[in-house]
Amino acid sequence: MVLLAGAAPGLLATEVIGRINLGLLLCGTLGVLAFLTAARYDRRSARDCDPDADRIRDFHEAEPPVPPQPLQNRLHRRGNR
Q1: HSE-up of 3 (CA within 13 Å, CB side)?
Q2: 12 pLDDT exceeds 60?
Q3: Residue 21 in contact with residue 15, Cβ under 8 Å?
Q4: Which of 23, 33, 69, 76 could serve as 12's disulfide partner, Cβ 3.0–4.6 Å?
Q5: Sign of the torsion formed by the C-alpha atoms of 12, 13, 14 and 18
Q6: Sequence-ordered alpha helix ranges (H) in 49-76
Q7: Under a CB-based contact definition with an 8 Å cutoff, are residues 57 and 31 in contact?
Q8: What is the mean pLDDT of the chain?
Q9: What are phi and psi of 20, to 5 degrees?
Q10: Which of 51, 5, 45 is closest to 24 using CA atoms?
Q11: CA 36 to CA 34: how far, in whole Å?
Q12: Distance between alpha carbon 36 and the CA centroid of its chain, in Å?
């Protein structure tokens, strides 16, 4: 858009409907396109990424298993028998 404005400012100043020029229409179109792209990204990430994130979160938030009790001979140190 910036390159087009620098290369052909007269083109963007062309009036399309009344006082609405081509530059204004292109800027509006870019805004709508950005909104639609963000909405599509949000829906896709909710469908594809959120189940994986939930699975990872559930795995890490789960309570750890109870460790086994140490054997008695592990408690005795060398020389303390």
Answers
A1: 0
A2: yes
A3: yes
A4: 23
A5: positive
A6: 50-61, 72-75
A7: no
A8: 81
A9: -85, 120
A10: 5
A11: 6
A12: 15
User: Residue 41 belongs to what H/E stretch?
Assistant: helix 22-48
- Measuring CA to CA, which residue among 41, 30, 21 is closest to residue 1? 30
Asked if 31 and 1 touch (Cβ cutoff 8 Å), the reply is no
Residues 79, 67: Cα–Cα separation, whole Å: 27
Residues 6+ apart with CB under 8 A from 74: none
Place of tokens 């909405």: 39
Dig out the tokens for 36 from the structure.
């639609």
- Which stretch of 4-8, 41-45, 70-74 has the lowest confidence by average pLDDT? 70-74
What residue type is 11 in one-letter code?
A: L
Q: Give every CB contact of residue 1 below 8 A, 6+ residues apart in sequence.
A: 26, 27, 30
